[in-house]
Amino acid sequence: MEHKELKEKALQNKETKEEYNALEPEFDLLRKILLARRQSGLTQTDIAKRMNVKASSIARLESSLLSGKHSPSIVTLKRYAKALNCKLKIELVSEKRA
């Protein structure tokens, strides 16, 4: 069974789908972080040097967003963004239901 098929099957379970959807902000942030780093041409080591931390810290930060086990602080995300010559933008979006 391929990943796509496995995901579709797993998301048929209501509880699994709710948990998956709850992680969407983390997945979205991770996609944006990785895209920005890729577009900048910088490696995790490059970012670490700019932030004055070890490369393993950057790997841990990026993987933490994927695992959902630890959320990096806003200060850390700001420093990461600055290392990419970006700025962090956080916004609230209404969840009004029709």
The CATH superfamily appears as lambda repressor-like DNA-binding domains
Regarding CATH, which class?
Answer: Mainly Alpha
Return the domain count: 1
* Low-pLDDT regions: none
The helix-strand sequence is HHHHHH
Question: Helical residue percent?
Answer: 55-70%
> Total number of β-strand segments?
0
Rounded to the nearest angstrom, the radius of gyration is 16 Å
State the helix count: 6
Overall description:
- The chain has a single domain, classed as 434 Repressor (Amino-terminal Domain) (Orthogonal Bundle).
- 66% of the residues lie in helices and 0% in strands.
- 9% of the residues are buried.
- The radius of gyration is 16 Å and the shape is globular.
- It contains 6 helices and no strands.
- With 98 residues, it is mostly helical.
